[in-house]
Amino acid sequence: MPLSTARITTSDPDRHLAQIVERLKPDAQVTGPGRAKVTLAGGGCSVLAAGDEVLVIAAAADAGGLASVQEEVGRQFLAARDVQAGDVQTGDGERVVWAEAVSGEQVELVSPIVEDYLLAHCTPADEVLRELAATTREVTGRSAGMQVSADEGALLGMLARMVGARRAIEVGVFTGYSSLCIARALPADGKLIACDVSTEWTDIARPFWERAGVADRIELRIGPAVDTLRALPDEPAFDFAFVDADKPGYPAYYEEIVPRLRPGGLLVLDNVFLGGRVLDPAFQGAAQVAMRQVNDAIARDERLDSVMLPVRDGVTLARKR
Predict the structure, then answer these.
(1) Alpha helix ranges (H) inside 39-99
(2) How confident is the model at residue 93, as a pLDDT?
(3) Cis peptide leading into 26, omega within 30 of 0?
(4) Is 126 helix (H, G, I), strand (E, B) or coil?
(5) Domains in the chain, start-ordered, CATH in brackets?
(6) Based on CB atoms within 10 Å of each CB, which residue in 103, 129, 156, 204 is the most buried?
(7) 81: pLDDT confidence band, cut at 50, 70 and 90?
(8) What's the pLDDT band for 191 if we cut at 50, 70, 90?
(9) Rounded mean pLDDT of 78-89?
(10) What is the b/e burial string over 42-77, where b = at least 16 CB atoms within 10 angstroms of the residue's CB?
C-alpha cells in the first residue's frame, strides 16, 4: 500500500515549500505555483502549498520505499520548522504524521454522492441510448463496465459538436454507445471510422445505430486497431478521435492518431487513471506502464494542448495545435 499523505499546518505554506525544495536539491524541483516534486531513491512525493497547510503525497513501489521517503521528507520538514521556530505544526509537534498507507485501488475517484448528483443534472440519455445500456448489461454481464457512462457519452457528443467534427475515428467500440454519441454529433455527411478487434460485442451495436439513424455515418473496421490506423493516409484529415481500448496499445494509438488530426482537432483518451492504479507505482503491469507512458508523453507533446480531467476513470483532452 505505497501511497500516503501528510498535512502540515504553517502560516506561510509557499515559503515553507520553497525551503523544502532548497533543502532537498537536487532531488526536488518546483513544478508550478505552490507545487513541487521530490524524487528519491526509494520513491518520491508531491508537495502542494495551499491555504494554511502543505500537503505531501508520498508514493513508492513498496512499503520499504515508502517508509524511506516518509522518513527523509519528514526529517527535512522538521529541520525547516527549526529554522522558523514555532511556524509549523506537524501533528504531534515532534514528527510529521502520515496517514495510513493505501493502494491506488482504494482511491475513490468518483464519490457515489457526486455521481448521483451529476447524473441528475445532465441532459438525460434518450430511449435508444437507455435501451442500448440496458441490453449491454443484460448480454455482457460484468463486462458492461467497459461501456462509457451516460454523462461521458454526453461529453463526447458535446466535444465533437464543439470542434465541428466531420471526420472522426474511434478505437474501441464495445457495444457502440460511444460510437452512437459521436456519430450523432456529426453532420449528415460526416463519417466515423470505428475500430474494434472483434464482432462479438459490436454486433449488439448495429441495430441501435440503425434505430438512431446514424448507421450510414459509422464505418466499422474489424482487426487490430494499430494496423487500421497505419493503413490510413498520413495527412491530417480527422477532426475528432476517441480512444477506449486495450490499455497497452494506448501509446501506439496516440502516436498514430496525432499526426492524422487536423490543427484544432481533438483527441480524447478514456481510463487514464485505470481505477487509481496509474497513481500507484506498486502497479507495474503492462497496462499501468503503458498508461503512464502515454500520460507523460501527452503532457510533454509540443504538438498538443492538453488537460486531464477527473471524469469517471480519468479523461484526457488533447487539442492539436
Answers:
(1) 63-83
(2) 44
(3) yes
(4) coil
(5) 3-102 (3.30.310.50), 112-320 (3.40.50.150)
(6) 156
(7) low
(8) very high
(9) 52
(10) bbbbebbbeeebbbbebbbeeeebbbbbbebbbebb
pLDDT of residue 53: 86
The residue whose grid cell reads 449491454 is 136
What is the pLDDT at residue 77?
79
Give the C-alpha separation, 311 to 271, whole Å: 9
Q: Which of 280, 269, 282, 267 is nearest to 313 (CA)?
A: 269
Handedness of CA 272, 273, 277, 281 (dihedral sign): positive
Burial of 102 (0-12, 13-18, 19+ CB in 10 A): middle
SS3 254: helix
* Residue 215 Cα distances to 55, 84, 135, 154, 237, angstroms: 51, 68, 18, 19, 21
pLDDT at 295 (0 to 100): 97
